[in-house]
Write a structure and sequence with these properties.
This protein has 12 helices and 47 strands. The protein is mostly beta strands. One of its GO terms (cellular component) is cell outer membrane. Pfam families: Plug, TonB_dep_Rec_b-barrel.
Length: about 1000
C-alpha cells in the first residue's frame, strides 16, 4: 500500500496522521467511556447522554438512587472543587457499569486495558522471578513509564506499598464498593505529590451505600485451566435519623493460574504456540552479515534433559532417561569442536536451531500466577450536620500467590570425574587422560522450584470532610490520618543449594564398595550421592540434603503514616466569575524492615534463632548467597516527606454568547524529602470553551517529580543466578550471579509534562457525539535506572570503562561469576504521543427501545526515547517495540446495546505490528559493523494482535441479574517475543497468554 503522507514534512505528516486517526476512530468508533461517561445509570436506564471526554464530572450527574452520594463530585485532575470548573488535565473515568460489563475477577484487569496504561504488572508478569517479590502484584503504569511513576490512590488518599518499590496492590482494594476509577493521563505532582509523573489512578468508593448487594462469578479457560471463583458481598445501613452510616464489605477471589509446561516446547494444557524464539548471536561483527538472527526452535547446546558432555574429546555424548549414552542430535547440522571451548561448528553462540530440544527450560515457567485474595473493608461515618462528616475506615486484606520460575535448576558448567561410579562403563572407558570432562544438565530429576509470596495489608484511616462558611463564602475541607502496614512473606520450596549439589554429584566408592560423596566433610554433614547421568530419581535423603525443607525466606514489614489536610473555596469573584483556590499540607513517613534466612543472608553462626531450621554447614559461605536463587538479605530504610501546595483557578473570559468562556488553572508545591532536600513542582494550564458549537480547547504544562523509593535507596542486596549469560569477551555462555543493591545517594527525578487538547462535546448537530484529541510530551531527567547485567557487560566490552569494575566473569567452572546491578541517576526519557477518545450514543435505534452506544480510546506513541547518559551510548527509541510496553498504537473499542431486559457488549482490543527492539539495524548483506549501540539483525518485525470479547447481561428482576463474558473469543495465540536465551518467549504486558476464557455470574442488590 502506498503511503500518501511519506513525502510530507514531519509537521504536516503529524497533522495528516491526526486527521486520519480521528476519522478512523469515528468510523470504527472505539470503546471504554470517555471521562465520566458512565458514572451514571445502570445498563437498563438508557436516557443517559454521554459527557464529553476529559471534562469535569460536574457535567454528568451520578445516579443518586444508586449511590446515595451527594451531587458534588471531586475531579481527580485537580484539587479545585468549584461548580462548573473544567480541569485542563485530561481525565478518563471508568464507571461501575464498565467494571461490571468486563466481569473480571480483579478490577485491575479492567483498568489495565486502557490504552494509556502501558507496562502494568499483574498475575501474568514476573512469573519467571524468584527474588523480585512482585509476583502476582497488580499495579498500574501510565505512558509506559513504569509502575513507580504512576500514583495510585484510594478515595484520593495514599495507600501503603505492597512492595519496597512503594506501589500498592490493587488486589487489596475493596473492589465491590468501587463506583468509579479516575485516570489522570498527565503529570499531577503539583496537585497530588510525588510519583505522579505519568499520572494518577484514583479509585472512588461509594461512601453512602445502603442495602445489600453481592456478586458470584466463576470462570475457566478453553484449555480447562485458570479456573476462577469470585464472591463479593456488601451491606450498608444508616442509623440515628440518617446521620450514622455504616458500610461493610467482604470478598474472596481465587484464580488458579496457568502452570508451567515443563521441558522442551510442550505448553501447558495443550497450548502449542511456544517455539523457543530466540535472538541468536553469530559472534561475528564485521563480515557484512547481521550479527544477530531471529530464529525459532533454538537449542541450548550446553545441557540436555538428562545430561550432555559439553566440551573436550567426549563432547556430544548425551544420556537418556535410563542413563544410556547416545550421540546428541545437534540442530543446524552442528558439529562439536571437542575442545575446551565447547563450541559447536555451524551453530550460534550458545545455540543451535532444531535438533533435540527436550532439555530447553523456557516453557517450564508459570504462565499465570495463582492468586487468592481475601478482603475485608468497613467504613463508619457520622454527620455532624448536613454539611460535615467525621469518618473512619479499616481495610484488612491478604493476597497469596505462587509461581514456578523454571523447572529444575539447569547447570551448564559442571566438571565431572571419569571415575564417578554412576558413569556408564562405555563412557568411562574412553574418558580423556585428564580424568575429567565438562557437563551440563537441565536437572529434570529435581523437584521444581516454587515461590510463594503472601501479602497482608492493614490500613486504617480517620478523617473529616465537609464545608464551613467563612468570609462570606463556603470553604470545603478534608483532613485525614492514615496508618498502613504491609507484611510480605516469601517462602521458596525446592530450592537447590549449589555447594551441596556439587558435592552430591561428585561420587566415589568407599572401602566397602558403597557409592558415597567423595568429600568427607560433606559426608559428615549428610551428603547423599546422586546420579545425574540419566533420569534416576534421587532418594528422599538426597533431596533433603540438596533442597532443604526450609528454603529461602524473606519477611518484609512496610509502614506508611500520612497526615493530610486540604482546603478549597471561592474567596472572591472577578467580572468573569469566581476565583477558586485549593491549598493543603501533607506529611508522610515510609519505613521498611526485611529479615531473611541465614543461608541467603549469611551470618550462619550468629543467627541463633534459625539454628534449628537452618543448621550450619561448614561447606557454606558465612557471607550468604548459598542458594541457587532467592538469596534474600537483611535490610531496612526510612524517609519522611513534608509538602504543601496552592492551586488557583482564575476565570478570564465569560461570554457564552460571544467569545466563549475560559479559565487559567495554576498550582505550585514545595516538597521536602529527608533523604534529598527540597524540590518544587508546578503546573499552568487553561481551558477555553470556544464560540464553536461544543468545541473546547485545553492545555497544561507542569513540572513533576518522583523521589527514589525505599527499594532504590536502601534495597537489601539480592542475588539470583542467570543462566546462558553471554560473555562478550570470548563469546561463551556462562552462569552468573546477579547482585542487586541500593544507592542512598540518589536524588529525585524531574519531569516536564505538556499536553494540548481539543474536545468536541455534544454538538447540537449530533448531541450524542463526544470526541477528544490530546497531544502529550513528557521529558524526564535524572531518571533512576539500572543497566541489565548483559547491557552492563556489553558496554564495558565496547569501551565504557567505568562499568568494568561491576562484574567478574573468569570463575573456574562458573563459580564466582557475578554482575553487580545498582540504580543511578543516569538516564533521561522523552515520550510523546496522542490520546484519542470518542463516544456516540443513539437512543431507540431503528425504532427499538433502549440505546446503542459506541465508545473508544486509543493512544499513539510517537516516540519513547531513553538515553542512558553514559559515554559511548546512544539514545534508543522504543516506540513501536512490541517486546516492551509501548506499541505504536493501542486501541480499545466497545459497542453496547442495552434495554430494560438485557444488554449486549462487544469489545475489541488491538495493537499493530512492531519491532523486537529499537536499537537494531536490519540488513541481510553488506551490513555495517555491528556495535553495542547499533547491533545488526536479519529481521526486526513482531506481529501485533487483535482480540475480540463478547458479554451480556439479563435482568431476571429489578434486583437480580445474570451475566456472561467471553474474552479472546477467537483464541488468538501470543506472538513470540524472542529472548537472547531460552527464557519464556512471550510478552504478557501486551499479549494475551491465557487464551479464550469463559466467565458467568449473578449479581444482586436489595
Amino acid at each position: 500500500m502506498t503511503n500518501l503522507n511519506a513525502d510530507l514534512p514531519l509537521s504536516r505528516r503529524r497533522t495528516a496522521l491526526l486527521g486520519t486517526s480521528v476519522a478512523a476512530i469515528l468510523a470504527g468508533i472505539m470503546a471504554v467511556p470517555a471521562m465520566a461517561q458512565d458514572v451514571g445509570p445502570p445498563a437498563n436506564q438508557s436516557d443517559q447522554t454521554p459527557a464529553a471526554p476529559g471534562t469535569s464530572l460536574q457535567a454528568n450527574a451520578v445516579d443518586q438512587a444508586e449511590s446515595g452520594a451527594s451531587s458534588d463530585i471531586i475531579v481527580t485532575g485537580s484539587r479545585i472543587q468549584s461548580s462548573g470548573f473544567s480541569a485542563p488535565t485530561p481525565t478518563t473515568v471508568i464507571g461501575v457499569e464498565q467494571i461490571q460489563q468486563n466481569a473480571q475477577p480483579n478490577i485491575f484487569a479492567t483498568i489495565a486495558q486502557l490504552p494509556s496504561l502501558q507496562g502494568s504488572t499483574g498475575v501474568t508478569t514476573g512469573t519467571n522471578s524468584t527474588s523480585s517479590g512482585t509476583q502476582g502484584l497488580s499495579s498500574f503504569s501510565l505512558r509506559g513509564l513504569g509502575t513507580i511513576r504512576t500514583l495510585t490512590l484510594l478515595d484520593g488518599q495514599r495507600v501503603v506499598g505492597a512492595n519496597v518499590t512503594g506501589v500498592p496492590d490493587i488486589s487489596q482494594f475493596p473492589q465491590l464498593l468501587i463506583e468509579r476509577v479516575d485516570v489522570v493521563t498527565g503529570g499531577a505532582s503539583a496537585s497530588y505529590g510525588s510519583d505522579a509523573v505519568g499520572g494518577v489512578v484514583n479509585f472512588i468508593t461509594n461512601k453512602r451505600f445502603t442495602g445489600i448487594k453481592g456478586n458470584l462469578q466463576g470462570g475457566i479457560s478453553t484449555y480447562g485451566d485458570d479456573e476462577s471463583v469470585l464472591a463479593q458481598l456488601a451491606v450498608g445501613k444508616s442509623f440515628a435519623n440518617d446521620r450514622l452510616h455504616v458500610i461493610l464489605s467482604g470478598e474472596y477471589s481465587h484464580e488458579a493460574g496457568i502452570g508451567p509446561g515443563g521441558f522442551g516446547e510442550a505448553g501447558p494444557a495443550g497450548r502449542d504456540w511456544y517455539t523457543t524464539a530466540t535472538i541468536v548471536n553469530r559472534g561475528i561483527f564485521n563480515d557484512g552479515r547481521p550479527q544477530f538472527n531471529y530464529r525459532e526452535h533454538a537449542q541450548a547446546y550446553q545441557y540436555t534433559l538428562y545430561g550432555l558432555i559439553n566440551n573436550g574429546p567426549l563432547q556430544g555424548i548425551a544420556f537418556d532417561q535410563n542413563g544410556q549414552p547416545f550421540n546428541f542430535n545437534y540442530g543446524s547440522n552442528g558439529v562439536p569442536t571437542r575442545n575446551n571451548t565447547g563450541n559447536v561448528t555451524g551453530c550460534y553462540v550458545g545455540f543451535c536451531i532444531g535438533g533435540d530440544l527436550s532439555g530447553n527450560v523456557g516453557i517450564g515457567t508459570t504462565l499465570k500466577s495463582r492468586l487468592d485474595r481475601y478482603n475485608g473493608y468497613g467504613r463508619i461515618g457520622f454527620d455532624l450536620d448536613a454539611d460535615n462528616e467525621i469518618y473512619a475506615t479499616v481495610n484488612i486484606s491478604q493476597v497469596d500467590t505462587s509461581n514456578q520460575p523454571n523447572p529444575g535448576a539447569a547447570q551448564s558448567s559442571l566438571t565431572m570425574r571419569c571415575d564417578n561410579p554412576f558413569l556408564p562403563g562405555s563412557v568411562a572407558a574412553v574418558c580423556p587422560a585428564s580424568g575429567t570432562f565438562g557437563y551440563g544438565v537441565s536437572n529434570a530429576i529435581l523437584p521444581n522450584i516454587e515461590v510463594r509470596p503472601s501479602r497482608k495489608q492493614y490500613r486504617f484511616v480517620g478523617g473529616a470532610n465537609g464545608k464551613v462558611e467563612a468570609f462570606g463564602t463556603d470553604w470545603r475541607y478534608d483532613a485525614y490520618f492514615e496508618h498502613g502496614e504491609n507484611i510480605t512473606d516469601i517462602n521458596v520450596r525446592n530450592m537447590l543449594v549449589p555447594r551441596r549439589y556439587l558435592r552430591a554429584i561428585d561420587a566415589t566408592r568407599d572401602a566397602n564398595g558403597t557409592i558415597v560423596c567423595r568429600d568427607p566433610v560433606a559426608r559428615a554433614n549428610g551428603c547423599q550421592p546422586i546420579n545425574i547421568f540419566g533420569g534416576a530419581t534421587p532418594s528422599s535423603a538426597a533431596l533433603a540434603y540438596l533442597q532443604p525443607a526450609n528454603g529461602p525466606f524473606q519477611h518484609t514489614r512496610q509502614t506508611q503514616n500520612v497526615a493530610s489536610a486540604n482546603l478549597s473555596g471561592d474567596p472572591f469573584s472577578t467580572w468573569a466569575g469566581p476565583v477558586s483556590i485549593a491549598t493543603g499540607i501533607e506529611w508522610r513517613h515510609e519505613f521498611y524492615h526485611v529479615t531473611a534466612d541465614p543461608y541467603g543472608n549469611g551470618n550462619l553462626t550468629g543467627a541463633t534463632a534459625y539454628n534449628q531450621a537452618y543448621p550450619a554447614d561448614p561447606l557454606f559461605d558465612n557471607g550468604g548467597g548459598n542458594w541457587y536463587a532467592g538469596n534474600y538479605r537483611v535490610g531496612r530504610g526510612a524517609y519522611s516527606v513534608l509538602e504543601s501546595y496552592l492551586e488557583l483557578n482564575v476565570p478570564v473570559l465569560n461570554d457564552p454568547d460571544g467569545l466563549g468562556t475560559a479559565n487559567i488553572n495554576a498550582a505550585g508545591r514545595a516538597t521536602n524529602y529527608s533523604t534529598s532536600g527540597t524540590v518544587y513542582t508546578w503546573k499552568v494550564g487553561g481551558t477555553w470553551d470556544t464560540p464553536l458549537d461544543g468545541v473546547r480547547l485545553r492545555a497544561v504544562t507542569s513540572r513533576d517529580v518522583r523521589a527514589p523509593n525505599l527499594s532504590e535507596l536502601f534495597a537489601a542486596p539480592i542475588s539470583v543466578n542467570v543462566p546462558n549469560f553471554t560473555n562478550p569477551f570470548n563469546n561463551t555462555a556462562v552462569i552468573i550471579s546477579q547482585n542487586t543493591i541500593g544507592n542512598p545517594a540518589l536524588v529525585p527525578e524531574a519531569a516536564r509534562n505538556t499536553e494540548l487538547g481539543i474536545v468536541l462535546s455534544r454538538p447540537q448537530w449530533l448531541p450524542g457525539l463526544s470526541v477528544s484529541v490530546d497531544y502529550y510530551n513528557i521529558k524526564i531527567k535524572d531518571v533512576i535506572s539500572a543497566l541489565a547485567p548483559q547491557q552492563l557487560v556489553n558496554y564495558c566490552q565496547q569501551g565504557v570503562t567505568q562499568l568494568c569494575g561491576a562484574f567478574f566473569l573468569d570463575g573456574v567452572g562458573g563459580q564466582g561469576n557475578f554482575v553487580n546491578v545498582q540504580p543511578f541517576n543516569l538516564a533521561s526519557i522523552e515520550t510523546e504521543g496522542l490520546d484519542i477518545e470518542a463516544s456516540y450514543q443513539h437512543r431507540q435505534p431503528f425504532g427499538l427501545k433502549g440505546s446503542f452506544t459506541v465508545r473508544g480510546l486509543a493512544t499513539h506513541v510517537m516516540r519513547y526515547v531513553t538515553d542512558l547518559g553514559l559515554p559511548g551510548t546512544v539514545p534508543i527509541d522504543t516506540a513501536g517495540v512490541n517486546s516492551g510496553a509501548t506499541p505504536s498504537w493501542k486501541w480499545l473499542t466497545t459497542q453496547t446495546y442495552a434495554q430494560d431486559e438485557f444488554s449486549i457488549l462487544l469489545q475489541q482490543r488491538w495493537f499493530p505490528d512492531g519491532l523486537f527492539g529499537g536499537q537494531y539495524v536490519v540488513c541481510q548483506t553488506s551490513c555495517p559493523v555491528s556495535t553495542a549501540n547499533a547491533p545488526t539483525i536479519d529481521t526486526n518485525t513482531m506481529k501485533g494482535a487483535f482480540y475480540f470479547d463478547v458479554g451480556g447481561t439479563y435482568n431476571i428482576s429489578k434486583a437480580i441479574s445474570a451475566y456472561f463474558k467471553i474474552d479472546n473469543l477467537f483464541d488468538r495465540d501470543p506472538t513470540p517475543s524472542p529472548q537472547t536465551n531460552t527464557g519464556i518467549d512471550i510478552n504478557p504486558q501486551l499479549y494475551d497468554i491465557v487464551g479464550r476464557v469463559f466467565r458467568a455470574g449473578v449479581r444482586f442488590s436489595f
